[in-house]
Amino acid sequence: MASRLHEIQHQSVTIQAPLPLDSGQSLPSVTIAWQSYGALNADKSNAVLICHALTGDQYVASDHPATGKPGWWARMVGPGKPIDTDRFHVICANVLGSCMGSSGPASPDAATGAPLGMAFPVITIGDMVRAQAMLLDHLGIARLHAVVGGSMGGMQALAWAAAFPDRLGSAIVIASAARHSAQNIAFHEVGRQAIMADPDWQDGQYYGSARAPTKGLAVARMAAHITYLSEAGLTEKFGRRLQARAIKSFGFDADFQVESYLRHQGLAFTDRFDANAYLYITRAMDYFDLAEPHDGRLAGAFAGAKDVRFTLVSFDTDWLYPTAESRRIVQALQSVGAAASFVELSAPFGHDSFLLDVPALDRIVAGALGGGR
Amino acid sequence: MASRLHEIQHQSVTIQAPLPLDSGQSLPSVTIAWQSYGALNADKSNAVLICHALTGDQYVASDHPATGKPGWWARMVGPGKPIDTDRFHVICANVLGSCMGSSGPASPDAATGAPLGMAFPVITIGDMVRAQAMLLDHLGIARLHAVVGGSMGGMQALAWAAAFPDRLGSAIVIASAARHSAQNIAFHEVGRQAIMADPDWQDGQYYGSARAPTKGLAVARMAAHITYLSEAGLTEKFGRRLQARAIKSFGFDADFQVESYLRHQGLAFTDRFDANAYLYITRAMDYFDLAEPHDGRLAGAFAGAKDVRFTLVSFDTDWLYPTAESRRIVQALQSVGAAASFVELSAPFGHDSFLLDVPALDRIVAGALGGGR
Fold it and tell me: Which residues make up the binding site for substrate (chains A, B) (predicted)?
């Protein structure tokens, strides 16, 4: 239930300074919820910012406060792990527009105290990154050893390199893209329409009511979830296997394992995510096109980033952000003289590979963060 | 509106004989709506059955009675066209379970006269084909020169060859598969959940009410429509182009052309299709697996079909029913000694290529139907 979600307390800071937005609007102040792991060293040179994906959060390596499940990248972040918290001060902030403590559509209106809902301004990936920079200013961290992210997290890492190249040693961009394709936008639009078609959405003003658009949000999640997996992965994991009773019901229950799995994914999602936040963040992703302010020349976005070291990783079975998008980024980086290493990894899990057990990814991330210091 | 849809009169016949179903249930009688084009010759040897796809209908080459648009395969069927109605008697029947005049969930209960809704039994592709065979019996047509279909129409053509190989000269199977994959099932399940999540669905008993689950059906159509197009095709057709006003709204209107297109596709669909029919037909497709009754050996389905001439066509950009599925069918046919020709065509339109302007497909279909008689 969305209402319980908003009762969770998160570590956060409210920065009493305006955040100008790409829309031309401005937030008078901005609240950022974040988690950190590992000690910041004396010269504050060992900070690594992890940027999370669409439905991720700041609980990268700690149990999720709503679900109790381990952090979404606990396999990657921790003592002795590829992003080694014995060496690095790891920061992960809930993105602007999300629902885990940072400013978003569930935030109160300054005047009335009521949740803003759709009165919250539409935000962009660039706005998310500027909010993260304000958090780092607040924490007294002038420069990041690295920014790391997969999927929408990778978009933020790219946007960091475009907006703040001088604050950045390296950028690690995994399973991502410099723009949303027509197909990416189309799938997101299906999800938004599913939410907005749910009468419990109530034009986004459901927070005070006993109802929330959980059915619409579940359908949105189901559609999106298919795009996170590969066709071959789905076949291997489920194929046409039936549920335990092993007979077709000749009805509309979940006969196939893949149906049951998808229904579970949809329902479980509504326990940990807010429908309006889903609308806002998908919109930010659809608006993302780093080349747009540079007349479509992606290299223009990286004009100041030639001293940032880039590491890009794609997965051969990722049809959401296919390898060609990473190649396009690498070409733009090379054209401005930035150091960019790129690997396409083979992994069966589709787009979700960046979250899963792919040892080659661990080695690349550890290597990109540099040997012992 | 679904209610107006059900007021349309269709040419149909009600056959007063039971239709035993794969579910074990039985329809006491079956109504089949159909259209035909071209004259049946004296020895009744020139009949070609066209099987339509999920949301298709019998109006293959005549204007659609609800939308007024030309028939869905008017480019393929007509005098002098690849399926030449100067030579062939072309029959197309609305599939069992659909909403254009054949028996389906909107049909009246024999006892009460009220629409059956979800009391209509779940049907299969095999059931659809047996209903078509009953229509041919009624029309006095013992044997088909050919059966032709794309997508779900191709599944029916394959099921014809499996069930009635002796009534068939040739089978032309386009952009199809012998089973639904996990990913295919997953996308259909999203659509069904979108419909059933709509409170206007009312457990399927919406026919008498002033409300129908048009929002849920539109979302289902949007999700499915993406799967009918290729990623490259979407990029070429829409890319990231904005609507006419050419600026981002920083809101949730359809800013991108692809959003507007998808919304239109979703809405327009609800004028010509019934939500319950969508549930039943997607279920029939998901249940489709010709190899299942033969311990997973597809060749077993074609044991009696070695004298049927098969023509299979796939499209290189079709990721819904990819070429590998057609190859699998060809291998099974070859193993039983059936003549099977197979071509993968290059076309940019994804799965929808079978409906669109692909001249090579025209030549293949015309050739498969044989030279002048």
Answer: 221, 352
Grade residue B39 by pLDDT with cuts at 50, 70 and 90: very high
- Taking the domains of chain A in order of start, what are their residue ranges? 2-181+290-368
For residue B102, how many C-alpha atoms fall within 13 Å in the half-sphere facing its CB? 27
CATH architecture of the domain formed by B185-281: Orthogonal Bundle (1.10)
Identify all chain A residues contacting B266, using CB atoms and an 8 Å cutoff: 193
Please answer whether residues B5 and B104 qualify as being in contact, where contact means their C-beta atoms are separated by less than 8 angstroms.
no
Which pLDDT belongs to residue B1? 43
Of chain B, the percentage scoring pLDDT greater than 70 comes to 98
Query: In 3-state terms, what secondary structure has residue A338?
Result: coil
Torsion of CA A161, A167, A171, A173, to 10 degrees: -50
Collapsed DSSP state (helix, strand, coil) of residue B149: strand
What whole-number distance in Å separates Cα of residue B157 and Cα of residue A199?
42
The predicted pLDDT at position A1 comes to 42
Count CB neighbours of B205 within 10 A: 15
Structure tokens at A212: 């929330």
Mean pLDDT of chain B: 96
CA angle, B162 then B165 then B168, to 5°: 125
Q: Quick check: A194 and A225 in contact, CB under 8 A? A: no
Q: List the single residue in B196, B219, B283 with the smallest CB-CB distance to A197.
A: B219
Q: What angle do CA B244, B246, B250 make, to 5 degrees?
A: 115
Task: Determine if residue A221 is labeled as part of a ligand binding site.
Answer: yes
Flag whether pLDDT at B255 surpasses 80. yes
* Domain A2-181+290-368 CATH (choose: 1.20.58.220, 3.40.50.1820, 3.40.50.150, 3.40.50.300): 3.40.50.1820
Query: In whole angstroms, how far apart are CA B92 and each of B2, B62, B149, B153?
Result: 23, 11, 10, 10
d(CA A153, CA A147): 9
- The fold adopted by the segment(s) B2-180+289-368 is Rossmann fold (3.40.50)
Distance CA B131, CA B91 (A): 13
* Complex-level ipTM: 0.95
Distance separating alpha carbons of residues B212 and B201, to the nearest angstrom:
6
Catalytic residue, chosen from B151, B176, B314, B353, is: B151
Q: Which residues contact A42 (CB under 8 A, 6 or more apart)?
A: none
- The predicted pLDDT at position B5 comes to 86
**Annotated binding-site residue? B22:** no
Q: Which of A120, A190, A196, A287 to mutate to test the interface with B (most CBs of B within 10 A)?
A: A190
Residues 160-219, chain A: which have Cβ within 8 Å of B? Answer: 179-183, 185-187, 189-190, 192-194, 196-199, 215-216, 218-219
Contact between A219 and B240 using a beta-carbon 8 Å cutoff: no
Burial of B359 (C-beta count, 10 Å sphere; 0-12/13-18/19+):
exposed
Interface of A with B in 27-86 (CB under 8 A): none
Q: Which residues of A touch B251 (CB under 8 A)?
A: 122
Between CA A140 and CA B284 the distance in angstroms is 61
- Asked if B59 contacts B36 with a C-beta cutoff of 8 angstroms, the reply is no
Q: Which of A1-5, A210-214, B277-281 bottoms out in mean pLDDT, i.e. has the lowest?
A: A1-5
Which residues is B289 bridged to in the sheet?
B179
Whether residue B269 is predicted with pLDDT greater than 90 in this model: the reply is yes
**Cβ–Cβ below 8 Å for A240 and B180:** yes
pLDDT for res A202: 98
Shortest Cα–Cα distance, B11 to chain A (Å): 29
**Span B322-331, average pLDDT:** 98
B283 close to A (CB below 8 A)? yes
